[in-house]
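Please check this today:
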Amino acid sequence: MADPSPALLAVDRFRAEVDRNDQQALTRLIAAYGRMWEGLQDQIDALNMRIEKDKPTPGQLLRMGQYKALERQIQDQLNGYVAILRNEIGDVVDLMLPMGERHNRELMSQIMAGDTRLATQFQRLDPETIKTLLGFISPDSPLYQRIQTLPEYTTKWVMDNIAEGVGLGRGPRQIADTIRDAFGRGLTDALRMTRTVQIWTYREANRASMVANGDILEGWVWKSRLVGACLSCVAQHGTVHPVTEIMNDHHNGRCVPIPIVKGFPPIITANGQEWFDGLPADEQRKIMGAGRYEAYKAGKFEFSKLSTEHTDEVYGPMRVEQTLKELTG
């Protein structure tokens, strides 16, 4: 196998830089959520002791003072967490805008010259200019509306799960585990929102730089990491798009757009289907699952159909992977 081109090596370096910053933000969010969880332990213990003593019905549970106290504390803690989450997302946006813009210019230079010496000669955009174009990060956007609902729906999820556990006759230890798992849903959502904002902002800064330098570009090509990626991303790998088109990867997606410079060969030489078809049969089956693999080999769907669009309330059209049922009807 030939050594990776300087441009592909640059893409890997850029992605590692993005991931380092991503991990720092996520670590802070996880730590803050952990502190909230520790702060709930006394209320959780008090409720569990009362449940163990009184053996309430679900209806009686809802009237318990300990139940209501835990509900209030969870809501209050999560209201405070929303402020932390908003601050982290704001910091992530401010970090990714200049990074994404700079990385695209450096990548164009790598493609043209094998290094970054041309990066300063390309049209450069002020991050604040890019920011004004990104509607999804405005204070009144669906993203921030979604963030504001985090305390309410997470609290409801926790309390509903407690009531269900009592109704099923679960013991205190099981209910404690139920509370932990249900409360963790809020953290999962917070991390997903932060990661998606981060990479979406980064890619849109990439693309804004491409639009500004559109006179030397033919478009951009979708790059997936392939190994470990979902089949939607594999199917999109190597597809070519105009600079005016948003890269609409799914939540938590880590794919990136690579500029196609006029007069220079593409740095991605094989598409996702070609990569997949070159794998051993057992590896193909493992990636697709037995049902989809057999249907694919039988010609019941085209590889490109593994990727489809659904509408997200924050980002609009998003690429997602299709199930066997969706592929074959």
